[in-house]
Design brief:
The protein is mainly beta. Strand 6 and strand 7 form a beta hairpin. It contains 1 helix and 11 strands, in the order E-E-E-E-E-E-E-E-E-E-E-H. The chain has a single domain, classed as 3-layer Sandwich (Rieske Iron-sulfur Protein), CATH 2.102.10.10. 8% of the residues lie in helices and 35% in strands. The strands form 4 sheets. A 3-stranded antiparallel β-sheet has the order 2-10-9, with no helix packed on it. It has a 3-stranded antiparallel β-sheet with strand order 3-4-5, with no helix packed on it. The protein has a 3-stranded antiparallel β-sheet with strand order 6-7-8, with no helix packed on it. Bound molecules: FE2/S2 (inorganic) cluster. FE2/S2 (inorganic) cluster binds next to loops.
C-alpha cells in the first residue's frame, strides 16, 4: 500500500541550540518519523527510514550517530551514512541515500517546510506482529 502524501503546512522543528547536548532530534508527523542532526551551525534532516529494509534507523530515542559522532548509523545492520548528504558509505545499502527533509531556517530556528512529499509510513514490525496474532 502506498500511503505517501504531501505535507500541507510548515511545522516547527527546533532551535539550533536545542541540539548542543544531544545527538539529534526526532519528530513524528502523521506516523512519518524524521530526525535532524546538527553539524557545525547547520541542521540536516532525513525521514527515519533505512534504505536497506525500510525500517527506522534507531532503537534509542534521539540516537542516530556512530561512536565517533561523525556518521549516521543504522542500529539494525550498521549501515553508515554521511550527515551532510545522507549517502550510505558502508553497509548493506552502500551507495543508497536517506530521503532528505526540506527545512526552512529563520535565524537559529528550523522548520519542516510545507509542500514537500512525505514517504509512506515505515513498516512497524511490532504492530505487524500484533496484528498477525489477532488474526490467528
Ligand atoms: S535496516 Fe538499516 S542497515 Fe539493515
Amino acid at each position: 500500500m502506498n500511503n505517501s502524501s504531501i505535507l500541507d503546512r510548515e511545522i516547527p522543528l527546533c532551535n539550533l541550540d536545542d541540539l548542543e547536548k544531544r545527538q539529534a532530534i526526532e519528530l513524528d508527523i502523521n506516523g512519518r518519523r524524521l530526525f535532524a542532526v546538527r553539524q557545525e551551525d547547520q541542521l540536516y534532516a532525513y525521514w527515519n527510514i533505512c534504505p536497506h529494509l525500510g525500517i527506522p534507523l534507531n532503537w534509542m530515542p534521539d540516537r542516530f550517530l556512530d561512536l565517533e559522532g561523525t556518521l549516521i548509523q543504522c542500529s539494525s545492520h550498521g549501515a553508515l551514512f554521511q550527515i551532510d548528504d545522507g549517502e550510505c558509505i558502508a553497509g548493506p545499502c552502500s551507495g543508497d541515500r536517506l530521503m532528505s527533509v526540506v527545512l526552512r531556517r529563520e535565524e537559529r530556528m528550523f522548520y519542516v517546510a510545507a509542500n514537500q512529499s512525505m514517504p509512506a509510513a515505515p513498516i512497524n514490525l511490532r504492530e505487524q506482529a500484533l496484528a498477525d496474532l489477532e488474526d490467528n
